Amino acid sequence: MGVSRVTATCILTVVVATSLAVLTPGARGLGRDDDFPPGFLFGAATSAYQIEGAYLDDNKGLNNWDVFTHTQAGRISDGGNGDVADDHYHRYTEDVEILHNLGVNSYRFSISWARILPRGRLGDVNPAGIAFYNRLIDALLQKGIEPFVTLNHFDIPQELETRYRGWLGAGIREEFVYYSDVCFKAFGDRVRSWTTFNEPNLYTRFQYMLGVYPPNRCSPPFGSCSGGDSRREPYVAAHNILLSHAAAVRNYHTNYQAKQGGKIGMVIAMKWFLDPIFFGDYPRVMKEMISSNLPKFTPEEKKLLQTNKMDFIGINQYTSIYAKDCIYSPCALNTYEGNALVYTTGVRNGKKIGRPTAFSSYFVVPQGIESAVMYVNDRYKDTPIFITENGYSQHSNTNMEDLINDVERVNYMQCYLKYLSSAVRKGANVRGYFAWSLVDNFEWIFGYTVRFGLYHVDFDTQERIPRASAKWYRDFLTGSSLKDDTVQSLRADS
Ligand code: BGC
């Protein structure tokens, strides 16, 4: 039985003046051991480019984000970049220590491809890159923290961008298989959980449809870029990613899984990516709508996908929005949804779907995590599920007291975990939960203007300061009593 019990009033987060409408019946205790199965992974997540810094250290090659942030700083809200970020490359021992203090049993991080293979498979493996991740993995294991490793979280060596036009060139598939093989060989004796890609459905949209991420390719009306084809290229890139994924999974299953005993999956942000992986083809409606712009799988490729299903599904779940099907009744489509005939919005009849966060399109909708998990669980037949990211953002220019005493984040985590535990009770095969993020970090095109960390980071001094949410999470995970006044008063308010 868990010693840690917390109460959460999970409110429907529509705020009208000062009134808060209660959505769920009453407050209910939540306990790590009572509400989640044994062996459940509880962790925090980060990604390489967002925290490591050290962008030129120890023979690391330049990656697409290094080049983009340096050449097009105007596209980043504050002109920032990941050159230093959280300086995690040099401070990883401290970061492992704060993970340990949180009481997590797992840590999700990604490997920087350009640190391992600065020039892709035609160059050498960089021993310093291998050594860094070996040190990190060993330090985690010494603290009883299981590494949960993502092979690709948005960053690719710039050389591959140039050589293959990034994910548009089929040649990059072989590169990914080679890179993942190097990682399985080097780290697989200690890493039991691998994910190939992070959110490729979102990433390809940002890269090749809206053109806001490198290599900034798009066409009107989706965006204004110097080159690109928003109706075709995102699908070409996604196709290459799906086939890279399947080939890497086949290699892992064939050559590593039996001796290393690990599992491999992919992290998605919902939507259509899972159908090709599980059923070997794109959804029928997608094929009809996108028709000739959607690449076709050959019979061999279909077989590759179908026979190399992944072992688990990673879901990044932050928010929910309203969606209206525009296939049968015409509606005003927004370009953000690309070619999908769907209208999405966070506001209906003048009311927001949940309380707003620093991200204008992210609202606090805790019940959405349960629906998302149940949907995936039903559709993909009980494949184990991990919530690989879930988190709450604050504006960096919020006053320091509120940044640290992050009551809203505590409420967010409590409520999302409560609905996650409800999905577990209803039979969903959920195996883990990772809070995004361990520390404030470089938030892509928003630079350092928003903060997702359980730990506040002073980017001048690199000091990590535990927020109320870090203390709450530690309390939930370890049952250790909280001495901190801010958290106690926050508790009294809930
Ligand atoms: C990404 C993270 C990002 C987070 C918050 C996710 O889509 O995987 O890299 O920081 O959302 O925007």
Question: What does this protein look like?
Answer:
With 494 residues, the chain is of the alpha/beta class. The chain has two domains: 5-316 and 357-493, TIM Barrel (Alpha-Beta Barrel), CATH 3.20.20.80; 320-354, no CATH class. Helix content is 39%, strand content 18%. The chain has 19 helices and 22 strands. An eight-stranded parallel beta barrel has the order 5-6-7-8-9-10-17-19, surrounded by five helices. Strands 1-4 form a two-stranded antiparallel ribbon. Strand 15 (355-356) and strand 16 form a beta hairpin. Helix 8 (171-187) packs parallel to helix 10. Residues 1-7, 12-28 and 481-494 have low confidence and may be disordered. The protein binds beta-D-glucopyranose. Beta-D-glucopyranose is lined by residues 47, 50, 198-199, 316, 389, 436, 443, 452. It catalyses: Hydrolysis of terminal, non-reducing beta-D-glucosyl residues with release of beta-D-glucose. It is an enzyme of class 3 (hydrolase). Keywords: Disulfide bond, Glycoprotein, Glycosidase, Hydrolase, Signal. Its EC number is 3.2.1.21. GO terms for molecular function: beta-D-fucosidase activity; beta-galactosidase activity; beta-glucosidase activity.
Record keyword descriptors for this entry.
eight-stranded parallel beta barrel; single chain; alpha/beta; disordered N terminus; 22 strands; TIM Barrel; binds beta-D-glucopyranose; globular; disordered C terminus; 2 domains; two-stranded antiparallel ribbon; about 500 residues
